[in-house]
Design a protein that fits this description.
The complex is a heterodimer of chains A (482) and B (322). Chain A is 30% helix and 24% strand. The chains are: A alpha+beta (482), B mainly alpha (322).
């Protein structure tokens, strides 16, 4: 299997400028794969899948009582990002997170951004992810969004855009770490020669960040990962991160509030907890503050949090910044809070609460992607060009019935990466989710999760919708070409 | 260690031990009938008494035929003590602590569960029931062996052992109890060949037949009771189980032997002393059934105290305990 006849087609290809001409940084990998014996690449792909299965890199399939676990499909051909390009992205991501953190803090305090009419007040007030319970909160060190996964895409001309901000409980970083382990076993030589930036230190950096958030005066903070439990689809990641950080993985029923502190029930009695990396949604966090029927959370934890006796990461209320309507205003927010132009642009976005923008969306449904403001995982969206007439009509009604809840964006021609399909390579569309930690500094994990739409022609990369993943290499390209 | 984790380790082992014991009773009863005079008929009702589910059984099945009893005790998911239910519960517990226990242990629990649910689905166990019960016993032994050889013998291991031993002590006492009251058709049968066959079957169900023979030779009811109840060396004997239960409780709390710092240690120590200084002749004269009944109640109180001491710290969230 070689790349000799691989055709990048009319899309931006992440590895090839044109047939037979690899991009800087990808040459070594391409040479190596071209030199493999017939069938060897597929053997290595099979070995990699086996390794992932044995490592237990699985996700649970909801509604499957037999307890079947599946591996997240993985493709051996990595996405390669040139180091200079990456450095630019990193600056852009840091800028964006800094501005969003200031925005969240402002929303739950003085709301200057509304008074200065940067963003219409009704858009904030009608956001499902606004948490009035968070008004006046002062999270430790002023940080709200400790862990962010920002989805990036590239259009036909190679331009990067931010597609979505995920500031609640973004998942997927465990796949980045495990995919990398598999790739290091599969292509050790190329790795060494390509100078791929490491991702292995992520759990350590995550732990450092979490400990930095601990209440003042605690010498060795007790950090825990809070999971909804073993039936959650991301349970593997929760246990993986806890294990890698060497901290306890807890469920809501392990924790309680005792005498003004959060404690966990151990066989030796109650033990105080200082920092909770929670992987459950705001709604379920504390039945006394949020949804009263939640069995997953810890009654009273918000009071302890308000009193500064426990840290929560991410802070409750951060979801306000990943409402897809508010997304449309992020470039303005960056300008407002930092007095800078956004480094990475947004995808042009039409907000349907605005009459003229809605008209534009409805008139161009066959060309646009329409998304609900508060959905994720590839649900609640319409990809106009791929949808049937009937689906478009249904969606038009949804939009008209609740315009605030929808945005429209032009359908981008997402970039592609060669992917193993049977005995040859075909281009498949990808996005990229880098992970960002906000602690003492802002740290961007070099690379991140490249999700790939494995179905031919598909633009939807979510694992629940037939997506897979690839390793992402940030490489320093050789100065002279071989 | 998190209380929830300790609790799950404890219950994983308890459920697996329970499944093994159910397989033991059923297997021995099948064999017993091959050796009994035809006229006595098959006795399946006592099997349901042993597990303490008589009422539930009669409501659902009516008559205690061989097929009904085996279906109920081996495969019925509506019966929380069936082998199938036990494995499902063991697997759910083990799954929630998968990252904490050695992976071999998790894999064994999972494989064990799949083996039983597969058999339940195929529904052909009645063709070769002995093979199935042997597989259940061996799978349980493999699990126990893995806990001994793959797990650090620290706190978690002691909770694992506690679950196994308390369950085993309870089940051995129930086997004895049922034999004494229900397997005997009449007083005149005492001492007959027929009686000897039944006592031998009882010993076999606790894998105690050969060990008993080596120790005492001839089968005599008081010695069988002595062996299964009060032996200090036989690993399925009640006294042995309690003795090791005490060891594990003290290993967990680090309290010296002979003292106690919590209700679990106190109750276990009291119960152990009662057995250690018991005389089998007096026990039988005073009524074995009454003795065993009281013993089971006290053992339950040890289990409750373990729960209160280590797993439950008030206020407790809602929780279902079998």
């Amino acid at each position: 299997m070689t790349f000799d006849s691989y055709d990048p087609g009319e899309f931006y290809d992440e590895l090839f400028e044109e047939t037979g001409k690899a991009r800087p940084g990808a040459e070594l990998l391409v040479q190596m794969i071209n030199s493999l014996d017939e069938g060897e690449l597929r053997q290595r792909q099979a070995a990699a899948e086996r390794a992932l299965y044995n490592m237990g890199i699985t996700f649970n399939v909801y509604g499957d009582t037999a307890g079947t676990e599946r591996i997240f499909p993985f493709d051996l051909i990595p996405r390669i990002v040139d180091a200079r390009e990456w450095d630019w992205l990193e600056q852009g991501l840091k800028q964006r997170i800094r501005a969003l953190n200031l925005f969240i803090d402002d929303i739950y305090h003085d709301q200057k951004v509304l008074k200065d009419r940067i963003i219409p007040e009704h858009v904030i007030q009608s956001a499902k992810s606004l948490r009035p319970q968070c008004a006046g909160l002062n999270p430790p060190r002023g940080v709200w969004c400790h862990v962010t996964g920002t989805d990036l895409v590239r259009d036909r001309d190679g331009q990067y855009y931010v597609l979505e901000d995920n500031l609640r409980c973004p998942s997927g970083v465990s796949y980045v770490l495990e995919n990398r382990e598999v790739m290091k076993r599969t292509f050790p030589q190329v790795f060494e020669a390509s100078k791929v930036r490491p991702v292995v230190d992520y759990p350590m950096r995550l732990l450092d960040m979490l400990q930095y958030m601990a209440p003042a005066g605690v010498l060795s903070p007790k950090v825990v990962v809070l999971t909804p439990g073993s039936f959650n689809s991301a349970y593997f990641e929760h246990s993986f991160l806890a294990q890698q950080m060497g901290v306890e993985l807890v469920e809501g029923r392990d924790l309680l509030v005792d005498n003004g502190y959060v404690v966990m029930r151990t066989t030796k009695g109650f033990e105080r907890v200082d920092v909770i990396y929670r992987r459950i949604d705001d709604d379920f966090l504390d039945p006394k503050s949020f949804r009263a029927d939640s069995m997953l959370g810890v009654p009273g934890v918000m009071d302890v949090y308000r009193a500064g006796r426990v840290a929560l990461a991410n802070a409750p209320g951060t979801g306000i910044a990943d409402d897809k309507v508010i997304y449309a205003y992020v470039p303005k927010l960056i300008k407002y809070y930092l007095d800078q132009d956004a480094i990475i642009p947004n995808v042009p976005t039409f907000v349907c609460w605005d009459d003229s923008e809605r008209d534009h969306v409805l008139a161009n449904l066959d060309k646009m992607v329409v998304k609900a403001a508060n959905e994720s995982g590839g649900y609640g969206m319409l990809v106009g060009p791929h949808a049937s007439e009937a689906d478009r009509a249904t969606f038009a009604e949804l939009v008209k019935a609740n315009p605030r809840n929808y945005i429209g964006q032009p359908t981008l021609s997402l970039s592609r990466v060669p992917t193993i399909v049977d005995d040859h390579f075909e281009g498949r569309h990808v996005d990229l989710r880098p992970y960002i930690l906000y602690g003492e500094d802002i740290y961007v994990l070099p690379g991140g999760l490249t999700r790939v739409a494995l179905k031919k022609g598909s633009l939807v990369v979510n694992s629940s919708q037939g997506g897979g993943s690839k390793d992402t290499w940030v490489v320093t390209a050789p100065v002279t070409r071989p | 260690m998190l209380s929830r984790v300790a609790d799950s380790i404890y219950w994983t082992s308890r459920y697996i031990e329970r499944a093994e014991n159910v397989a033991r009773f059923l297997d021995v009863n099948l064999h017993l009938h091959l050796d009994l005079p035809v006229a006595t008929g098959e006795q399946w009702e006592p099997m349901v008494y042993i597990t303490g589910d008589y009422k539930r059984f009669i409501e659902r099945y009516g008559s205690a035929t061989r097929e009904n009893v085996i279906q109920f005790l081996a495969f019925d998911l509506e019966n929380p003590n069936s082998i199938h239910s036990c494995l499902r519960a063991a697997r759910d517990n083990a799954r929630s602590i998968r990252e904490i226990i050695p992976s071999e242990m998790w894999e064994q629990v999972n494989t064990f569960y799949l083996m039983v649910s597969d058999a339940a689905r195929r529904g052909d166990v009645m063709d070769a029931p002995h093979d199935f019960f042997t597989r259940v016993k061996m799978a349980s032994h493999l699990y126990t062996g893995l806990t001994v050889t793959c797990m650090p013998h620290s706190e978690g291991w002691h909770f694992c052992r506690l679950g196994r031993l308390i369950e085993r002590a309870d089940k051995t006492s129930r086997i004895l109890d049922v034999k004494y009251f229900l397997l005997l058709p009449s007083v005149t049968d005492v001492g007959s060949t027929f009686d000897a066959i039944q006592w031998a079957a009882l010993l076999r169900s606790a894998s105690a037949y050969e060990a008993y023979r080596k120790r005492y030779g001839r089968i005599a009811p008081d010695r069988v009771v002595q062996f299964l109840l009060l032996d200090r060396e036989f690993p399925r004997a009640v006294l042995y189980c309690l003795d090791r239960t005490q060891d594990s409780l003290h290993a967990i709390s680090q309290t010296p032997e002979g003292a106690f710092t919590n209700a679990a240690e106190q109750r276990c120590g009291q119960l152990l002393a009662e057995l250690a200084y018991a005389d089998v002749v007096q026990v039988i004269r005073g009524g074995l059934h009454e003795f065993l009944d009281a013993f089971q109640a006290k053992l339950n109180r040890v289990g409750d105290a373990i729960f209160d001491t280590y797993f439950a710290h008030w206020p407790m969230p809602n929780r279902a305990v079998s």
